[in-house]
Structures
1.
Amino acid sequence: MSTEATTAAAGAPLVSLRNVSKRFANGTLALQGMSLDIGEHDFISFLGPSGCGKSTALRLIAGLTRISSGDMHWGGAAAGNSKNGKTDRDLGFVFQEPTLMPWAKVFDNVWLPLKLAGTGRDAAAPVVKQALEMVGLSRFADVYPRELSGGMKMRVSIARALVTHPRLLLMDEPFAALDEMTRIKLNNDLLAIWREHRFSVVFVTHSVYESVYLSNRIVVMAARPGRVIDEIRIDEPYPRGEDFRTSTRYNAHCTAVSQSLHGALHGVDIDH
C-alpha cells in the first residue's frame, strides 16, 4: 500500500476564499459567505444539489466572473492584485462538454492555449506531444474531433487544460455525460496524472461515488444561496483502484457523504 499522504502538504494555501458571495445582475444570490482553502496537490470535489453554486464557485476561482463581496487570495495575495504571483498559465479549466474546435485537428486543439499566449506551433510541439502522451492520445494528433469517441474528446480537453502545466486544474462535471466504464477509466487516468504531476484539482460532480473515489477532501454545498455546510476528508491512500472501490471503507465513506448531502438537500448545516 502506498504511503503517499492523502492531504495537501502543510503551508500556505494555493488559493483561499474568504466569505465570498456572488449576486448576479438579475438579483439571484448564487453564493453566500463561502470560505475555502485549496492546498498544494489537493484533490477537492464540490458536491451539492443542482443550482447550489458549484459551477459558479469554479468560475469565480477561474476569474471568469467577479466576486460580489468577500476576498479571494492566490498564494497569499489578493486576487486582482497584479503582484499576486498568479498568471493565466496557473489555471486549467475542463468544462462539462469538451468544447473542441471541430475544424481543427487534435494537435491544434491542444496547442490553442499556447498559441493564444504567443507560442508558435513548432515551439509548442514538444509540450503538446507530452500533453497528449499524458492522456494516452499520442497516436491521434492528426485526427479531427468528429473521429473520436466521447471519452477521447474529453481526453483532448484535459490535455488542452494541462498543456500549460497549471498549478490548479478546475473541472466542471467533465465525465457526467460518459458511460460508466469510460468514466471509471478516466477517473483512474486522471488520478494517475494528478499524482505524477502534482497539481491541485477542484472537481465538480453530482456523484457521491466519484467524489469519494477521487478526492482527499469533499466540500458539500447547501442549496441556493450556495455555501459550504460540510467538509469531509477521505483519509485513504493513493493509488486507488478496484480494491478500494469494493472495500467496506469505501462504502462507509460513501454512506457518510450521502448523509451529509441529504442534509444539504434539506438545508441542514453539519456540525462535526
2.
Amino acid sequence: MKTFSKTDVGVVREVNQDYVFTSEQPVGNIPNLLVVADGMGGHKAGDFASKFVVETLKEELLQSTEDGPEAMIRTAIVAANRKLIERARQDIRLQGTGTTLVAATVIENTLYFANIGDSRLYLLNDEIKQLSKDHSFVQEMVRLGGIKAEEAKYHPDKNIITRAVGAKEKIEIDFFEYRLKKGDIILMCTDGLSNMVEDDEILRIVKSSRDVVEAVEQLIERANYNGGRDNIGVVVAKPFADEVNL
C-alpha cells in the first residue's frame, strides 16, 4: 500500500480545523490506518477536536483487544467520543466542539471503514464512486424525497451535519465493508475538497497523477484555485501499489 495525506487551510479561512493521518504500518492489531476529520466549533475548538479525536483513536487502537476491524474501530471511536465530551465539559472554550470522522483500514482485499458526519470516502477506478453516506441535513432531505440529489450540492444548508464525534453521549457510527480489486484507489476527504472540485475532475486529477503525493497536492491546488472556501483535508491510498505498478 502507498498512502499520502495532507491538509491545507484554504484561501478564506484563518484556522485549519481539518486533521488527517495515514500509516502503512500496523497500529496495534490494525494492519494500516487512514483517517480524515473535519472539526467544528469556535476559533480553537474545531482544530482541537479533530486532532484530539484522531490521536485518541490511534491510542485506543494501539491497546485494543477487540476481535476484528469493525469491533476495534467502533470501540476506539466510542472511547474518543466519550473523552472529547469529557474534555469539553472541563474547558468552556471547547463547548459545542465536535468533528466528522472517516477511519479506514485495508485487510487483504477488503476495505473496512467507519463514517460519522459529511467527510467522505470515495473509490476510484474507471469511475469515481462515493462509498460513505453523508450525515447531513440536506442528505436527509434527499432521502425523504424533499429535494433532488442534484439540488443537494448547492443547497444553502448543505453544511449542517446531523452526526459528529463529540456531539452526543451515544454516537451513531456507520460501518462499511467493500471488496477491492486491482487498480482501485481510495480517496478520503473533507468537504473543503468535495464542495470545491467536481467528482469527475477529482477522478481525472487522481488518475493522471504520477503517484499518491502528486495526486493529493494537485487536488488541494485545484480546490484552492476554485475558491478554497474551506479547509481541505485529503487522503489518497493505493492498496495494491506494492504488488503491481499502478
3.
Amino acid sequence: MSLNRNIFPLILLIVLLTGCASLSTRSKDADTIAASAGMQKQEIDTGSFILTSYYKINDKNAPVNIYIEGDGFAWASKRELSANPTPKNAFTLQLAAEDPSKNVIYIARPCQYTSFEKDKLCEPKYWSGSRFAEIVVDSVDKAVSHYAAMQPKPEINLVGYSGGAAVAVFVASRRSDVVTLRTIAGNLNHDAVNRYHKVEFLQDSLNPIDVAGKLASLPQYHFAGSEDKIIPVSVIKEFAEKAEQGLSCVKVSSVNGATHYSGWKEHWKELLAQPVSCKPVLRKL
C-alpha cells in the first residue's frame, strides 16, 4: 500500500506536466501559423477571462475581419471532458491566416491557449455546459471592442466556426459596428444539435437561435458541410429561416465534401469572396 501511495503523486505530476507540454506544443503551433500570416499574439484581459488573440492591422481605415474559435478540444471522448480545450489543430486560426484582407483578427474562446495559472476563472464548465454562458459571450464581445477601438469608424466582419459561430451570433446581435456575419459549420441551435445526437441539453448556455430575429437586417452567409456529421445542415437552415423577416439578407450554402473538420481551408478564399449583401424581398400583392 505504501508503494501505491508513493507512486500516486508521481503519476499526478506526470499528468500535469503532460498537460502543460501539450498546451505548450499547441501554442507554439498556433504562433507559427500566425507568424506565417504576419499576425502578432496578444492576451486581452476582459475583466473575466483572459483571451488569447492574434492580429494584423495594416490599415486602420479598412474593415476588420474577426474570427472566433470553435469549441476546440473540449472532449477527450464522447463522455469525458478534456483537461484543456485548446484546439489541437488551430483550425480557425488557419482560416484566418488564409484571409488576404488588410486587417485580420483571431480570438480564441475562454481557456484556450491561455495558461490556467493566469486565468483563474477557467473551469471545465466553460468548455461544456456553460460554453455559451453570458460571461463567455461578454468576454468575447469585450475582446472585439478592444480591436474595434483601434478604428476611427469600425466596420467588423465576423466569422465564427462551430461553437464560435454561436458566439459570433450573440456578439453580432449586441453591436452596431458588425456589418457582415459568416459562419462555418455553425452550432446555431444547440438544443437541436444535442437532440440530434441524443445527449443532454446545455442548461447554462444561451441559444443563438433565440436571437436570430435580431439579425434580420444583417447581411450573413452560413456555410454547411455536406458531409458534416456533427452539425446537420437542417440546424443551419432553421436558423436562416428564423433570421429571414422580410429582407433577403441570409444565405446558406452546402460545401460539397466538407465535414465538420475538413474540406474548408482549401476553399476558404473562394468562400470568403462570395458576396454578402442585403436587399428587400419583393412580394407580390
4.
Amino acid sequence: MLIPIRDINPRQRFPLVTLLLVVANALAFLYQLGAAPEVQQALANRAGAIPLEISTLRDLGAVDLVPPPLTIITSMFLHGSFMHIVGNMWFLWLFGDNVEDRLGRVRFLAFYLLTGIVGALAQCFMMPESPVPMIGASGAIAGILGGYVMLFPRARIVTFVPIPFLWPLLPLPAWIFLGLWFVGQFLLGAGSGVAWMAHVGGFLTGLGMVRLLEYMPNRRL
C-alpha cells in the first residue's frame, strides 16, 4: 500500500472550498460518533445512497432526509469509520487544493459534487437491487484524483512505501502514483465491502470533466 505524504506542486491561493469540505465532513462524522448506534444506523438508512432506492426512485422504509436520488449528495458527507474519513479527507486535502486552484472555487465545488454523483450512480448500476446504504465521499475523492492526474501528470508525490527495514520516501510522478491507485481499485473486488465501482466511475469522470471545466469562461471564480 502506497501512502502519499505530500505533493511537490505549489498553489497560488488558499484552497477555501477544499477546507470547507473537509470541515463539513469532519463535523458530520463527529455528529455520527456522538449518536447512539441505532441512531447512526437510522442516519445511514435515511441519508445514505441505497442502490435499490436510486433505481426505483422510492423510499424503502423510513422517509429519507431528501428524496432519492438526492440521497447521493447527503451520503457524500457520512463515513463509516475513523480510517474511512481520515483517508478520504487526507486525499482531498492533498490533491484537492491544486485542482481548486486551477478550476476556481465555484467550478471546483461543482466538479466535486458531479464526480461524486457519477461515482455513486456507477456503483448503483453495478448492483441496482442492493438495499445496503452507501456512505462516504470516495466517489468525489476519486474524481479529484482523476482531475489531478489530468492537470498535473508530472507533479511529484512524496510517497511512503512500507518496505520493512527500509521505509523509503519516494517522489513518484502523479501519473505513476495515481495510475497504481486506479489499478488497485480492481483488486478490491465485490466482496471487500468497498464501493470500488464508485471509485472507478468517479476517477474516470474526473479525467474527462476537468479539462471541460478548466476552459469554461470565468473559471477563476
